[in-house]
Give the backbone structure.
Amino acid sequence: MEYINDFEIQYEDILLNAIEENTTTPKTHYDNEERALINIILEYKDNYFIWMYDFSLPVDDNLSERGLRGVKSKMKIVGQFQNEKTARYYAYIKTYIETCYRNNINPTDALIRLMEDNPYTVDEVLDTKND
């Protein structure tokens, strides 16, 4: 755990130096944005490095970004959803498919069960994860 403490000290030193440099150097066009970014990084340090304390967490958010990619593509192609109701339906179905897929349940089988009015339950999904 000493290496984590060393990392935290170095991290905070770098950010404190950044704050000092930002306040003592001549003002630039992006000075306010730079200061805001430094403050955000300092304020949310625990969120950025939570994976150092819990190795079951990913070090990046690629999985989340991949999950949103389909929605963003749909919005670019179509322009938008017709209304909030259709957007909500899309989100429900997408969430159901993604949840099944991430838990090793065939998405096609999951959709067939959904159309037969027999969707996978949370207990069934968790059971398949433990198999």
